[in-house]
TrEMBL record:
PANTHER family in alphabetical order: SLL1037 PROTEIN (PTHR42941)
Gene3D superfamilies the UniProt entry points to: Periplasmic binding protein-like II
Lineage: Bacteria, Pseudomonadati, Pseudomonadota, Alphaproteobacteria, Hyphomicrobiales
One Pfam entry name: NMT1_3
InterPro entries linked: TRAP_TAXI
Name of this chain's protein: C4-dicarboxylate ABC transporter substrate-binding protein
Comp. bias (Basic and acidic residues): 34-52
Disordered: annotated span: 24-58
């Protein structure tokens, strides 16, 4: 009996060892379970999802964070284009625009290059140029096309009261925005060019402002078109103010432009006679260069025709002031324009033709006696256009 018990124990131990060895062969090691941290490859273009969209009438519009002007512009387009259209047999809207939250930087470009439902995006021109030159996502020259240049995006550098100038930021914690955003990529570059060494933080706008109010962050950068509604609602809490960013043609070369933040832009932060000098970058509306045989090409063609035809409606007071900087016919050197946009401009002999024709009809409706000055008359015309969108 003892011999039988001894043999049973040996058999159990042997079976346990076999099970352990089997599990060791099937389970990955700790190093296998952890994702590899190899640098991203730069020679291959990200693959675009080309399957049929769940909604073939919806254009995916990648913008910035919900607090930024780029998202407000996307919402302007979505709201305007949804109105005044005929619907389908089941009540569906013929053309819809779906704003998609991005980071205003590299993610916007990557989303358009990869996601089936992402067709267009607002992105800084200098950033897209850098991605193309460095081949970060491979050769994207034929994958992206521009619909139109848009407006400039200003650098907004908020600082705590003890920070009087850029030199005071040396060694301090400064938030440049989410990783890959225009603020993170270009803000880092600008501060390095200016010789300001900081401790970088990469938080969203809300978290950055909260960190400044608590004293955890000394300054925060936001790159977006002025006025940014998120900042316009911000008061001079705890002495938070804008820091000037000096413009130097030799230092900035052709990548950046001089700009100014004024009391009219941020009355709760900037005094009446205390403008703040800063720098800015150009932005543009880019599209995925769908092949003509793809259903998304036809959808984008309808999007361009509708947007360009109704462009004068965006110039009224109800929409963001940045619309008044847009010239649809302007060129973007080094890039090809999306083919339907180029055809529309050629047919219309310039993006301003429809606006001038509408302005002439407006003048005919005004009394001839004691006309106001042209600027005031033009503003009245824009308000008239909003009340009479079909004329």
């Amino acid at each position: 009996m003892r011999a039988g018990l001894f043999i049973a124990l040996i058999a159990a131990a042997w079976l346990g060892g076999q099970v352990h060895d089997s599990l060791a062969q099937t389970q990955p090691s700790a190093s296998q379970r952890e994702p590899a941290k190899a640098p991203p490859r730069k020679e291959s273009v990200p693959r675009k999802e080309t399957g049929r969209s769940a909604d073939p009438y919806t254009v995916g519009f990648v913008a910035g964070t919900p607090q930024c002007t780029e998202f407000a512009i996307a919402q302007d387009i979505a709201s305007m284009l949804a109105s005044g259209q005929e619907t389908g047999p089941h009540g569906e809207v013929a053309l819809r625009v779906l704003p998609i939250v991005g980071n205003g930087g590299t993610r916007n470009v990557l989303d358009v290059l990869t996601l089936a439902g992402a067709d267009v995006a607002i992105a800084p021109v200098v950033l897209v140029d850098r991605l193309r030159e460095a081949k970060t996502f491979g050769d994207i020259s034929d994958k992206l096309a521009y619909i139109a240049p848009l407006y400039i995006e200003e650098f907004h550098l908020l600082a705590r009261p003890e920070i009087a100038g850029l030199t005071d930021l040396a060694g301090k914690r400064v938030n440049l925005g989410e990783d890959g955003s225009a603020g993170a990529v270009l803000g880092r570059e600008v501060l390095n060019r200016l010789g300001v060494k900081i401790s970088e933080s990469n938080l969203g706008p809300d978290a950055a402002l909260e960190g400044m109010q608590k004293g955890d962050i000394s300054a925060a950068l936001l790159v977006s078109g002025k006025p940014v509604s998120f900042l316009a609602r911000t008061g001079q809490a705890d002495g938070i103010h804008f820091l000037p960013i000096p413009y130097s043609k030799e230092l900035m070369q052709q990548d950046y432009l001089p700009s100014t933040l004024r009391h009219e832009d941020y009355p709760n932060i900037i005094g009446v006679d205390a403008p703040v000098d800063t720098i800015a970058i150009k932005s543009a509306l880019y599209a995925y260069n769908w092949p003509a045989r793809n259903e998304r090409f036809g959808l984008l063609e309808l999007f361009v025709q509708t947007l360009f035809t109704r462009f004068p409606e965006f110039l009224g007071d109800a929409h963001h002031p940045k619309w008044r900087e847009v010239n649809l016919a302007a060129l973007l050197p080094g890039w090809r324009r999306f083919r339907p946009a180029e055809r529309w401009l050629q047919q219309q002999t310039g993006g301003e033709a429809a606006l001038r024709k509408a302005f002439g009809r407006f003048l005919e409706s005004q009394p001839a006696a004691n006309p106001p000055d042209r600027e005031e008359l033009f503003r009245e015309f824009l308000r008239w256009r909003e009340r009479n969108p079909g004329r």
